[in-house]
Amino acid sequence: MTRLSYRLFLLAFSALLGACATGRGPLAVGTKNTDKTFNTVVVDAGHGGKDNGAYRRFGGAEKIATLDVAKRLSRKLRESDFKIVMTRTSDVFIPLEERVAIENAQENCVFVSIHFNDSRRRGIRGFETYYHSGNSVDLAYRIQSKLMTIPSSANRGVHTANFRVLRLAKYPAVLVECGFLSNPREGGEARDSDYREQLADKIAEAIVEQRYGAGVYRASRAKPSEPAG
User: Fold this and answer.
1) What's the pTM?
2) How many CA atoms within 13 Å lie on the side-chain side of 107?
3) How would residue 6 be classed by pLDDT, with cut points 50, 70 and 90?
4) In 3D, which of 193, 111, 196 has the Cα closest to residue 150?
5) What distances in angstroms separate CA 40 from CA 34, 43, 102, 122, 158, one per listed residue?
6) Which residues, other chains included, contact 39 with Cβ-Cβ below 8 Å and sequence gap of 6+?
């Protein structure tokens, strides 16, 4: 290797290390930073149709709980003047690639996927929020922080993940695990309409504050015709 080539190699290697150190290097490649400008929210209700997701006697089928929370979240965000696109509005199966395509077809948006967790150990409980792109970090932490204001909640943290709906997203994208259906307490709460309303409310508050700042969000209550399912 010539001296010039060696210098070029060192410069390139140093730039790579610098990008990694910021946390917004390789993770953010190909992702548009819209976390302060978005006017559209893609709300993804996990699982559906032939895919039940987790299924526990405490909390029932994950696909039912995720759809109900997603509908409530969508209503609250519409009331805050966001354009809402839902990946599914009924009990149908939507492939992961199609969910990503729905998000990536939008302009100036963020993506929020709603899930519930599962474990063989009944004692495990708590909220988790996942992200992949560095442009999604702030939204992930804000959602987790708001969920932790729910009384007696357990914090399982914010984590990076290689989930397809996050990895292939071209806008900020997060996946929220709204508690463990396998836990007697959280599984029972997941069946409760008031609790689902509270989950949707906290996530909506985080999204609105991410876009417009603190103190803007105004909570609303579920309509009488909106059952838990």
Assistant:
1) 0.85
2) 0
3) very low
4) 196
5) 10, 10, 12, 37, 23
6) 82, 83, 108, 109
Q: Which residue has the tokens 């910021």?
A: 22
pLDDT value at residue 191: 95
pLDDT of residue 30: 64
Quick: pLDDT tens for 153-172. 999 999 999 999 999 999 99
Cα distance between the two ends of the chain: 67
CA distance 122 to 199: 21
**Among the listed residues 160, 171, 189, 176, the one whose alpha carbon sits nearest the alpha carbon of residue 41:** 171
pLDDT tens per residue across span 169-194: 999 999 999 999 999 999 999 999 99
How do residues 19-71 score in pLDDT, each as one tens digit? 333 333 334 446 899 999 999 999 999 999 999 999 988 788 999 999 999 99
